[in-house]
Amino acid sequence: MKSEVPDKEQAISGIALCKAFRRTSGENIQALEQVSLNIHHGTLAALVGPDGAGKTTLLRMAAGLIAPDSGKLEVLGINVTADPQQIQSRISYMPQKFGLYEDLSVQENLDLYADLHGVTPDAKRLRYAQLMQMTDLGSFANRLAGRLSGGMKQKLGLACTLVRSPELLLLDEPTVGVDPLSRRELWEIILRLVRDENLTVLLSTAYLDEAERCGHVVVLNQGKVLVQGPPGEVTKLANGRVFLVEPPEGQPARNLQAQCFDEPGIADAVPEGGLVRVVLMPGMKASLGSIGCLTAGLDVQPTPARFEDGFMLLLHQQGNKAAPVSPGTVRQTPLADKDRCEIIIEVHDLVKRFGAFTAVDHISFEVCRGEIFGLLGPNGAGKTTTFRMLCGLLAATSGTLRVAGEDLRVARASARQRIGYVAQKFALYGQLSVIENLEFFASAYGLRGRRKRDRIDWALQDFELSELVKLPSGQLPGGYKQRLAMAAALLHEPEILFLDEPTSGADPLARREFWQRITLFAEQGVTVIVTTHFMEEAEYCDRALIQDAGRLLARGTPAEIRLLADSRGGQRPSMEDAFIAIVEKAREKASTLAMGVA
Amino acid sequence: MKHARAAGYDPISSRLRRIGALVRKESRQMLRDPSTVLIGIVMPALLILIFGYGLSLDVKNVPIAVVLEHRSQEADEIAAGFSLSPYFKATVLTSMPQAQQLMNQRKVDGIVRIRQNFSHQIASNNADIQVLVHGSDANYARIVQGYALGAIGQSFLRKKMEGVVINDGPVIVQSQTWFNKNNDSHYFLVPGLIVLIMTLIGALLTALLMAREWEQGTLEAIFVTPVRVGEILLGKIIPYFCLGVIGLALCIMAAKFLFNVPLRGSTSLLAGASMLYLLVTLGMGLLISAATKNQFLASQIAIIVSYLPAMMLSGFLFDIRSMPVALRVITLVLPARYYNELLQTIFLAGNIWPIIIPDLMVVGAMAIALLWLARIKTKKKLG
Description:
The complex is a heterodimer of chains A (598) and B (383). Chain A has 18 helices and 23 strands. Chain A has 598 residues and is of the alpha/beta class. Among the domains of chain A are: 12-227, Rossmann fold; 235-317, Alpha-Beta Plaits (2-Layer Sandwich). In chain A, helix 3 (106-116) runs parallel beside helix 5, helix 8 packs across helix 10 and helix 13 (434-444) crosses helix 14 (449-462). Chain B folds into two domains: 14-55 and 184-377, no CATH class; 62-161, abc type-2 transporter like fold, CATH 3.40.1710. Helix content of chain B is 67%, strand content 6%. Chain B has a four-stranded mixed β-sheet, sandwiched between helices. In chain B, helix 4 (73-84) links the parallel strand 1 (62-68) and strand 2. Classes of the chains: A alpha/beta (598), B alpha/beta (383). The A-B interface holds A 21, 57, 60, 63-67, 78, 83-86, 88-101, 103-104, 108, 111-113, 115-118, 157, 160, 170 and B 4, 7-8, 14, 17-18, 20-22, 24-25, 28-29, 32-33, 216-228, 380-383.
């Protein structure tokens, strides 16, 4: 930086920004530490970083909602501390909770924001037509915002910020909890705005492939800027260090991935298209053969680096690699012989109707003991409904369903002892401390005396919660909340674990750690059923199914599913490409069918 | 700098438009949210009915035993006075032990005993009637006693008017209740109820709804628009003020037509004072929500600092003058106290300016102070 004066020519220009918060428990959190950044006019810029990196704080600061403790921040050439109102009048901002009024309709929400921004009636008409076309919300104008699906809510939130052309658009995790299709649509809108209206956008995201599409990236970690510049600068760090490794015959890629992930010479490892993608630490390339997990004569091919590889390398160098998961015992009785498929979940012709609406439409599938089984599908596909029926929380309209040999809806309570359930957003008691939560759930599952103590000790140790026992669970950082929720669901050593969107909103590190654990559970014979919006996570599954509008579209191993969509010659489609292709094909078919009927 | 000011120029018309948009939004939410209707309309209606019909402090149909140990015209007349009175349900007996038994079984709450030599006593101008009251509820007992004495006194009065010469005793008690001739407790309960309802709508409802916006993050989004804090507050005040006025109208109608409370002062003065008080409670509600930003906490605080004092310390249920000094000092800062006094005066006594003007000034000053504080405390800031 040339001088200590913020650059007036930038859309956002910050120098040495600091901000500390005080937690209710008394400790100080340094949310931002000496952060300097510049965002040019007309740039699409992304803030990336793990949970607690300071992304939301920085966005709120740019919106004039938080004043820096020290440092100087100018937005559109205006000092945020001196005249926040002027900034707020000229920019648009979508907070993480979108700020929609759920009891107002789509149209009423838009009207409110249009009037607050002083859009004239003529301009309004023009703009609404544009927005409706862009977001496909036109047919839902009179629906209450609270009744929209997650993806549509996000689109409406975005539309509300775009009722007039802002000079700067700030978006806080606009795609969190949104399925791949809606995510792609949201991105099309954002990219179009940047291209056609030369809009400046600063957004935060947990999806690293989104960062790759931006013109400028700011990588934050624990309140500090690690790198900023074009995404290529981050990708470049991993150039020549990324390899695809083929796992030994008959072994799932995730086992090799788990081994590699713990190697000190490896910065990152993820399963990808049946192979394992590994990123080597600097200086390890020459001694490729010395890395434990790669020695067994496996096929190792170099592959071009992605943004995510560079990002993980960067974080690893900062010392935050996901902590290796200790191979403790989830269950005291390990299961033998995985070759023989023992069917533990059997669903046949399952239907659920809510009035005239069919949420689950004749679905059949089977899950073997010790399998990781994924339920994939866009928002509103009926995944959660299927889930609730499996857990016995909801009665099926028709069809049969057996979990561990029984229908949980009518089975005795003892049958429920065999399952563990982690709900969306984790059902924890926020006011209770970590230990109090564990004690409550242990008692709820009927654990007593020595066994109860043992299992709680196991949970604290294996999930590394020991240091946080006294903290109210509501104040736990995101990743720890997820750990605690999982620990609570595993206290009674269930045979089957149900996880509903466990990684939604989690950062890349927390997600890797999560899958480490899941892999470990599966090895020990626990059957895991999981829903997710991160399609690359389907690669960890033994088998998965794709559901849309209640119907089953595809079922099989990740490789088989990818094959279904292999339309582009030669190139391996990613799981996300496959997912989008399969869902779109099915939707097209459904709409032509509907037209044929009409 | 000149340029910056030009950019910040904000014509009054766009301010009005923003306020209009917020008021529209709030009204729609109000109509759709059952809890608003519940607190704003159903709760006042219930309060009126429960307090109005259930919690009457009047005593009627008191079961009483009239023991006539001696029959004479005078004695019969007194017994008839009790039998015909709407306040008593008299059982006429001839022996005291019978009456005592009824009292022990709590079948009667009082005994009026006319002794054997009653006629002689009257003749010698030294008549004496024994009144026994069941004292388990002291308040009730006092009221019963008062009525009984009144009933006896009246039968003598009647005689006097009929021209029978009765020598008066050394002291004559002439009691008369001013402003509430029927001694009807609705007369002061209903104005007190209006105080409660205005407090509920203003403080509790507003605190809850504003805190909800903080909690759900809708304010965070609204903040990053040209809207000013004052406009956001006005957007809350205007619709809830209107809701309060509707509640007020309901209450005044109930007072006049359901409970026949006289309105001796002017209706417009009553409305004006009420609107001023509504502003006080709205200011309280907004201040509480700005300080807590949390629905649960806001509702608890609103109940503790506005609703409970309005009920216990405003002079509605308990007379302020008979409170201990410490409590009396506390009531001095309670807006509900002044409003209660205003309402009781306007309803029951009329436009008594020496009371009304100072009270109005205090309520007005409190409204200005609370709204100003709410404005200062609400900031476009998070964290």
